[in-house]
Write a structure and sequence with these properties.
It comes from Actinomadura gamaensis. It is an enzyme of class 3 (hydrolase). The relative contact order is 0.20. The chain is built from 3 helices and 6 strands, in the order H-H-E-E-H-E-E-E-E. The protein has one domain: Thiol Ester Dehydrase, Chain A, CATH 3.10.129.10.
């Protein structure tokens, strides 16, 4: 198991215990955590609505950013970190706030020493694609003590 995967599992457990973090805020659950692949899920409700009454695109973007970024995180060595440089999201269909559970799978495309890319797909309970996206992340190598 990579150090990044282990660190991610610990962070998710801590967030679940303390209620701290965006995952806890939105009620995200980690369904799958493996090297290069993460699946998160959430069930939207009226709090997630935009003025039209459907799920706000920022919720779907956050779900994608989390899954894709964490897929990158699972591949990192001990002491390395990352940040999102670019996030591209395509919204395919409106999502009802009463539409049930959404699942997002993020997978790495390329993980280099300085840059990583990943892709993600959000599907509804019926398996219909509602959004998809890509990310570019900057990878920060472990800090070495001098």
């Amino acid at each position: 198991m990579t150090a990044g995967l282990e660190q991610l599992k610990q962070a998710i457990n801590m967030g679940a215990e303390t209620g701290i973090g965006v995952g806890a805020l939105l009620g995200m659950t980690a369904e799958t955590l493996e090297p290069g692949r993460v699946v998160f899920a959430l069930t939207p409700d009226a709090r997630f609505a935009n003025p039209l009454g459907t799920v706000h695109g920022g919720i779907l973007s956050t779900l994608l950013d989390s899954a894709m970024g964490c897929a990158v995180h699972t591949t990192l060595p001990d002491g390395a970190s990352y940040t999102t440089l670019e996030l591209k999201v395509n919204f395919v269909r409106a999502v009802s706030t009463e539409g049930g559970r959404l699942t997002c799978e993020g997978t790495t495309i390329h993980v280099g020493r300085r840059v990583a890319t990943a892709e993600g797909r959000v599907v509804d309970e019926r398996g219909r694609l509602v959004a998809h996206g890509t990310t570019t992340c900057m990878v920060f190598p472990p800090v070495t003590e001098q």
